[in-house]
Amino acid sequence: MVQEIEDFYGVYLLLCLNPKFKGRTYIGYTVNPNRRIKQHNTGTHAGGAYRTSGKGPWEMVLIIHGFPNDVSGLRFEWAWQHPEKSRRLRDVPRKTRKETAFQYRWRVVCNMLRTAPWSRLGLNVRWLKQEYRLDYPDGLEPPLHMPIVFGPVVSKKVTKSQKGSSAMITPQAVSDDGDGLMVLASEDCAVCSSHIQTEETTLTCLRPSCHMRAHIVCLAKCFLEDVTQILPVEGKCPRCDVTLLWSELVRQCKGCYRNLSESVMQPENDRNRVQNVAESDEDSS
């Protein structure tokens, strides 16, 4: 089953299937995985990379996605390509003789997912084809908020109208209360209780029936357990007590999840919901 994801930013790993170059790998960044793998296998004249041109076929086997923007994704790409130059990865052991290039790249990215600032992002580890999947090395499992997912993915652009309306107007601004009555979302911050000004950026609960709305800074402080950190990972909605991933709230603010279903937002299934909320994108298309 192909999953459709809005506002896609991903860093991928290619594996060469050409017997002459078999085992070679390539790391790249993309906002459109299907288009990118076609470019790599077609050649430089189609936009493919010089290092992959004429050495195909290549298989895109792994992609790390969920980055908040292209800058974050490109920085991850560079560090994964050059772990020996990254100050955050200097302690990662170099490739051993027993390791294949594929195994080494996997070990490096496992270390990256446990290293700040990437460890606090709402990333997904996606194996595009399950037969290539590798287990996590002992002691290098990712944080609990980073799910392992399988299968192909299709990127979906968020329209300008969605982006423009998301910062000020939310899907919960006017909603059904369950009795057929329309309810206006609160104009007061759910955390500080002060009135929300029109120009202020706010975040809302992902649960369609919840009318929580809060200043982005207020909600961040509410979610942060460690005062020395700046970026939250997850927290409880101040209104409905559902566990919310910070990255998903930001994605909603940018125009994603406009048709998120209530069924995936039940409080009693918080952990499973956190790991599967992105999959609801496919149902909303």
In short:
Belongs to the SLX1 family. This protein has 285 residues and is of the alpha+beta class.
Structural overview:
It is a single chain. With 285 residues, this protein is an alpha+beta fold. It has two domains: 3-156, no CATH class; 161-260, Zinc/RING finger domain, C3HC4 (zinc finger) (Herpes Virus-1), CATH 3.30.40. The chain has eight helices and 13 strands. The protein has helices at residues 33-42, 70-81, 101-113, 160-166, 216-223, 246-253, 270-276, 280-284; strands at residues 3-6, 10-16, 25-30, 58-65, 124-127, 148-150, 153-156, 174-176, 182-184, 202-204, 213-215, 234-236, 243-245. The strands form five sheets. It has a five-stranded mixed β-sheet, sandwiched between helices. A two-stranded parallel ribbon has the order 1-7. It has a two-stranded antiparallel ribbon with strand order 8-9. It is globular. The model is unreliable at 164-177, 180-184, 267-271, 273-278 and 280-285 (pLDDT under 50).
